Amino acid sequence: MELWGGIECTVNRVGNRWNDQLALTGHRTRMSDLDAILSLGLTALRYPILWEDVAPEHSDRRDWSWVDPRLDRLRTSGCRVIAGLVHHGSGPHYTDLLDPGFPIGLADHARAVAERFDWIEEWTPVNEPVTTARFSALYGLWYPHAREEAAFWAALLNQIDATRLAMRQVRRINPHARLIQTDDLGRSYATAPLRQQAGFDNMRRWAGWDLLCGQVTPHHPLFDRIAAFGLSDRLRAIADDPCPPDIIAVNHYLTSDRFLDHRTELYPAIEPGGNGQMRYVDVEAIRVLQPAPQGLEGALREAWDRYHIPIAVTEVHNGCTRDEQIRWMARAWSIARRLERDDVDVRAVTSWALFGNDGWNTLLTAPGVYEPGAFDVRGRDVRPTALAGVLRDLSTGREPHPVAAQPGWWERPIRLLHAPVARPASARAHRPVPTPAAAPILIAGATGTLGQALERACRHRGLDCVLTDRTGLSLDDPASIRRALDAHRPWLAINAAGWVRVDDAETAEDACFAANAVGATNFARACDAAGIPSVNFSTDLVFDGTDPDAYDEASAPNPLSAYGRSKAAAERDITALPGRHLIVRTAAFFSPFDPHNFAWAVADTLRRGEPFHAASDHFVSPTYVPHLADAVLDLAIDGERGMWHLTNNTGISWSDFATRIAAACALDTALIVPVPGDELCWTARRPVDATLVSRRGALLPSLDHAIACFAGAMGEIRDRQRAA
Q: Which segments of the protein form a coiled coil according to its record (predicted)?
């Protein structure tokens, strides 16, 4: 079984706006990406040679300037190319999925590609034809924005004909060319009144492969339904001249299995749909069925039983935290291996979206969220994530990352977002997934905001952790630190302890320095000796605020306060150590789970109807603690070291921050009183503007999103308090 990779390369159209994933993830302008890909040990790469790219204005005017150097590099690398010609697109602007000329146009493009790159033997002329037809011609999300079943079947047949004609042209040049035909494959489950709808959905999902295999004849369950739209002659022509895939290429996501429920009142946050006869909600089956749906293993077994054609898993991606991405990749690999042992001919597993994707949370209909893959492109440099290391481990047979063996979110109780619905299943399916023993993450700082947030994040993510207080680990006692590391044997140690009272440090600098500088260095040094990576935290207060530009990781500290001096000393001493140490500078914590922070104080004061004074002339980079905790864990899992700045990516005055908190919490913004910082009776000097930015990557969501999360959580807390 081989390890393949792929680059998210969708070029789809919404109205007159084109969405180009190659541009959004930056791959379009980075030749160096190919060297990064080739370092992973992949056997083959799904790579775009898109019709929209090569002939954007006219079918006879082709531009190979982007494709040529990249294909030349891949040809000499030993990594096979699986050529993709249309990927969730509708072709260039002069055609679309409902254009009768679409099949011939794509076939002409395929011929030109095959003539230029006659060494390519594996082809996917059209990616996911059933899925693309649904989104473009049934749901109206993508161009040409049709919303009727007749258009769906016409768009599907156009893509199938395009695939057949394209492979005919390719095989005239390279008789050994193989068709690797992808589509999303999940199963629909349903309540009893919707069993016919689920049955139809479960038949329709096979339509693309069935058509290519010549199975949609008058005896096929879908033939009469499709023929009723005036398409019987096309169905017969396809059946008479089929183009069976050489590999059935299955794309299965954690949300591919669906559940249809007519009890729409049980899902107040979900907009119901319908089939003209009954209204229902269509939800992710993994979020409601108990036990869980069949998942990837079931999909692969069904595909093998139906076709007995070799199978490949051609997209494995999970837009989630790094540990969950690793687990999903490892799980897909182990499932494929298990099926291989059961004599299912599984040829490959593919890490998809190697450079991530952008906007799939909106189904590419509007700007959205970026999700990293094996590489993270949010910094000045493309950064390998821990997933890249896992792929190298899989390709060489080494054991993957310590977090890989622990259950993923889809295997833990948190997967259920709705009242569970019983699914008939064997007794084995009802047994809980065992949680293997794993080395934990050690977190020092049980009483602090950050320590508790990190522990909460670990618990939610299924990461074993140990949270210690001063009795279990004292930073001022190196022997205590060593005993804790020896007792718990963690794979990662995080120091979230230390002195946090900025003004009090002015009259207790020795105690502050002992905790924040000496203690932090003791912690990192003990981790060095045990061969354990560590994480420590620093602050924007290491800067004096006089630089006209925002401060990045390379900016030189010049603290104004005792607290800032203690943190700067820790940065200096830990950086000098030889081990694997990550130092995170952050600022202006806010959290709904701890009353000891600025945003909480704003909300609490305003709810009492009292004014809140905030500095209008001092600027900070607010950081939502739950976002910070997740980003820190991701970076630690990635094995990052050195200095990182992590904030919610906005410099703002304290008074403007207070106003935005008030507005989000539906409180009276007129009660915010902007004042000069000098009037707030601060003992310690603060920098006027210590806005933090990162040259390594802006990993946290926007401040707007963070404030919305804070306000939502505060509302939920108040609702629970009222209910109690």
A: none
